[in-house]
Every structure is written in C-alpha cells, then in structure tokens.
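Sample intake sheet
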Amino acid sequence: VYVFGLNCSSCLGTGDTQSTIVPKKLDILGGRKVVSLSYGSGPHILLATEDGALFAWGHNNYSQLGNGTTNQGVAPVTVSANLLNKKVTEVACGSHHSMALTDSGEVYAWGYNNCGQVGSGSTANQPTPRRVSTCLQNKVAVSIVCSQTSSLALVDNGEVYGWGYNGNGQLGLGNNGNQLTPCRLGGLQEHEDFLTVAQSLKREFDNPETADLKLCIDGKYIHVHKAVLKIRCEHFRSMFQSHWNEDMKEVIEIDQFSYSVYRSFLEFLYTDNVELPPEDAIGLLDLATSYCENRLKCLCQHIIKRGITVENAFSMLSAAVRYDAEDLEEFCFKFCVNHLTEVTQTAAFWQIDGNLLKDFICRASRCGAFKN
C-alpha cells in the first residue's frame, strides 16, 4: 500500500501528520495482500487483507476505527473487537461510520449513527464492530456499500437491504424516512412475479419472514414451513398430526443429527437437491435411512460414489453396510478390491468393525483378490 497527499487526521497512516507529494509505502502492511480498501470522507480508512485481517486508521471522533476510543489513528491498527476468528473479505466507509463483511456473510457496522446507519435499531454511536442482524440475521451477505450516512447490503439470493439516512428516498423504499434497521428494497423484486414454484420454494427456505416453525439443532435455528414439510416428507406428515405434541409447538428441538446434516436435509425438501462432501453425505444417508427417504438415500449414495478415494473407501463401505445401501455397498466393495494394496494400508481399514473386516476378506477371497 502506498499513500500520498494531504495527511488530514493522519489519514495517510504514516505515523505522523506530515503530508507528502511523493508516494510512501506503508511498511506496517508489508507482505500483506490487500483485498478491499475504503476511504471515508472524515477522513478514515479501512483495509482488509487476504488472510482476513482488518486494519483502520485516520479520523476517529465517532469511533469509526472500531477500537472503542475516539483517539485518532496515526497508523494502521488491527480491528479485533467482536471480530475474533472472523475473516473479513470486504470493507466500506461512510463519512463517519464503517462496515465490514466476513467470509461467512455476516455484516458488521460501527461508528457514527445519527441516522441509524449502523443498523442497531437506535441512533446511539457504536464504538466497536456490532453485527447487523434483524432482517439480515439468517441471510448471507455477498457485498456491502456505504454512502455518507446510509448503508446497503446485497445478499446471496439477490435481495438488497438498506438502512440509515433516507431523507431523499435514496434507500429505494418508497418513502423518505430514516431506517434504524435493514429494510428490503421491494422495488428490485419485480422479477419475483415470474419465479417458478421450485424457485419460490428455494427462496423461502430458512426465511423467518414467512416461516411458521423453527427447528433448533445444536443451538442454531432453521426457519421452515409446516405445509412444505408435510407435503414433502412422511416423517413430518406424521409428526404434525394433532395427537403429536410437536403439532402445537413453534420451536422443535432436534438432537439426533448434526446441524449441517439436518440443514442439508431440509434444504433438500425445498429444492430436491443435495450439495455435500462425501464424508458429510454419510450422515445424511443415516438420516435418509431413518426417515425412509428413498430418493434422498439415492442422492447420498451418488455423492459418495463420486467422492470415493483410497483413503475413505473402507469408511464408505462401512456406512453402506450400516445403512443397508446395497448398491453403494457393492460399489465400495469393488473399489476396495480393485485398489486392495492401497486401501489395506490406510488407517480406515484397520479401524473398521471386526465382523465387517472378516466379511470383506471372505468376499474378496471368493473374488480371487488374494491369488498370486
């Protein structure tokens, strides 16, 4: 990073207040690859590096540097408050407020908040990064931008949310009232009139605005619609009969399966599609077997077949036997026999159940796998 020009409020980050007409390299950032940089008119600067670190410096009268103080930042300093273990991928500066986007799609904001541009639901200034939630709580943001006192976020389904100053209607909400929390720009959704049934169902998955039920797995919530679950799954159709307690609940706890597996299952009910690595597909195969979801079972077997390797072959074979997936079992068995020398040297081979190992050796022997 090179800087030059007027050094108002130490915005050049050189550690002093001296302006320069010659580009100067910021040595403190040496060796780091910059992925996003933004300049606020305060002026203050935010910068994100390839490893997800966030740096800030410059004007800080409203805590827009996110360090909990109002001291000027004369040189780049890491912003870590409330962002530990978070990887920042994009930054945006308003005149005196700041935003950051993480690789998981979370939006954080801080600094001056006179018009609600931090999205906290109030107009109190925010001294450290705070996650922008409410309507963005279960959304995955893919891009952010700030104007002087307004903020916008684009989420992965194409929706745009805006908050902050709206005196001239710049948030596109059809009014000119300031917004203290994110609001969806409905005028950009006219194309929704032409969505297919499949597209509409996919869009509504995990949508708290339209859901009538929450499923809690590992302490995390997934928002769903009882009608969709009853139409798509016999297990849920039985669950929501009037004589089941679950029919009257607004939140149902699920403890038999992991969050990632159960989320993939619910997403399958909405989209008829599964996207998982082979190792995770084993857990989903377990669920599909328990819920008698034969189509899902076939999809899981297909994923496992595509992802089978020498290292995981015996784990996959064990899963196929355990969940009575005969076609997958035969596929994994043949793979193991065809790569017998390699797979018998893996840790998975020696960790499988003794009875399964005996059965494999007997079957492989009948196939002539141990002939010279």
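Comment: The domain at 2-193 is CATH 2.130.10.30 (Methylamine Dehydrogenase; Chain H). The radius of gyration is 27 Å.
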